[in-house]
Amino acid sequence: MKIRMACHLYNVALLCPTEGFVSNGSLTIRDGIIAARGAAPNPGETVIDGKGAMCLPGLINTHNHSPLMSVRGMVEDLGFAPAYTPGVPQGHWLSSEETQILARLGVMEMLCAGATTIVDYYRMPDALARAAEAFGLRAMIGGRVMDADTASLANGRFLHDPKLGEATLRAALDLIDTWDAKGNDRISTILAPHAPDTCSRQMLHTFADLSAKTGKQVHTHLAQSKMEVAQVRSREGLSPAELLEDVGLLSPDLVAAHCIFLDEADIRRIGKAGVVINHAPIGNAAFGAAAPVIALREAGAKITLCTDTKSADMFEAMRMAIAAARWRADMEFVLDAKTVFGWGTVDAARALKGHAASGTLSVGSPADLILLDPNAPNLRPVIDGYGIVVHSGSAANVTDVMVAGEWLVKDRMPTRVDMDTVIRDAQKVAENLWKRASA
Ligand SMILES: [Zn+2]
Question: Which residues contact 371 (CB under 8 A, 6 or more apart)?
């Protein structure tokens, strides 16, 4: 079903990675598409006064696991990969209903923070797809597949668990059959083997074949911990990136999160293959790391940004990406606001397959856009747009979110789902999980 409507949004400051900054602009939106920029209103169009708000393309948050909301605020000081630590609620405890309730909190937060397109993968992907469909944003959903015993992973050992592999692969393939192009064409599916240290060589091979057969990109984690690098080295005699190359996964159809612990040969290898990187600067910094994204980009990799189920604040991610890059470069100004704004919008749209977003406000693009509070002191003065948004903006500034011409957030409230219910339900589920963890 297409949403049929036409509106004229005026008195907005347009900030677009490809069209530049227009301090007093307007957009004509028809049938979910940006039909014109700077045109006069036509009869029959709903006229909306933007009241001087900054209007940006919807942000693209390229790597998340929304049910992991269950442990937010409780594990950040516990060391790396606390998801496998005793005393912490485990993902496999969650029922499908609990998964969906937590996913709704995660999706709602991302949407209200200005993400109009997200990538989300975890166990029980059907629950993730239902959560995304309820809010109406664009979502690339995957079933996370792994065939390693999770208890052994905590000790850095790989113990093959073929049953877990079969079950998670079946759920991932069922998802593709059920959900591709659903939810007004806003839901699509991805392939998502968890990581080189949690998937056997055979499983990674399976995904290389599936990608070749379906044309879908393979989303995974790569070089996210020293433990992963050590385990894959002792198991395969290769670095994690070499292993992915060996099984045929290193290509522009690989979307790899983190990419922190790489040597120079790995950086060249990943860059040459044109891999898409999900840079997660907030999560990385939280455990004291900064991925070598400038070197990866120079080698040929494409950079996108994500919040990886942390604050969902893509403005914070953009700012943190700059800080991390400059810190890695020993205070050289190797990254600027305009570039990183592109990573959060148009570059991600171009690098990822399986969605209609353009990450721009150009004519002919789907009308995926966000408005920022015109009265926010932190967004003044507005002179060139990029700098103030990236260096001073915040998810809390997002007031309205449109996807395909439909308002999904108005005055900071989701339009399709009751915010209070989502928060209350998720709080209850998380409290129960933590009670079970300490029992
Ligand atoms: Zn992840």
Answer: 12, 50, 53, 54, 55, 398, 399, 400, 401
Alpha-helical runs (H) found in 158-225? 162-179, 201-214
pLDDT of residue 78: 85
CATH of 59-351, one of 3.30.710.10, 3.30.420.10, 3.40.250.10, 3.20.20.140: 3.20.20.140
Give the residue carrying structure tokens 């405890």: 93
Residue ranges of the chain that CATH labels 2.30.40.10: 7-57+360-414
Q: Which CATH number fits domain 7-57+360-414: 2.40.170.10, 3.40.50.300, 2.30.40.10, 3.40.250.10?
A: 2.30.40.10
Ligand 1 midpoint to CA 308 (Å): 6
Is 1 a residue whose pLDDT tops 50?
no
Instruction: Compute the C-alpha angle 143/68/435, nearest 5°.
Output: 125
**In angstroms, what is the span from residue 80 Cα to ligand 1's centroid?**
13
pLDDT digits (tens, 9 = 90+) for 59-102: 999 999 999 988 888 888 887 666 667 788 888 889 999 999 99
Cα-to-centroid distance, 26 and ligand 1 (Å): 38
Alpha-carbon distance values, 271 to 225, 251, 266, 425 (Å): 20, 9, 8, 43
CA distances (Å), origin 36, targets 50, 281, 379: 16, 35, 26
pLDDT for 193-212, tens place per residue? 999 999 999 999 999 999 99
Report the Cα–Cα distance between both ends of the chain, in Å, rounded: 49
Q: For residue 182, give both structure tokens.
A: 């659903």
Taking the C-alpha atoms of residue 31 and residue 53, their distance in angstroms, rounded to an integer, is 23
Q: What percent of the chain has pLDDT over 90?
A: 89
* Cβ atoms of residues 110 and 64 within 8 Å: yes
pLDDT tens sequence across 284-335: 998 899 999 999 999 999 999 999 998 899 999 999 999 999 999 999 999 9
Distance 25 CA to ligand 1 centre (A): 38
Residue 64 Cα to ligand 1 middle (Å): 6
Distance of CA 396 to the CA centre of its chain: 18
Distance in Å, CA 57 to ligand 1 centroid: 24
pLDDT exceeds 80 at position 114: yes
d(CA 68, CA 64): 9
157-197 per-position pLDDT tens digit? 899 999 999 999 999 999 999 999 888 899 999 999 999 99
CA distance 68 to 109: 13
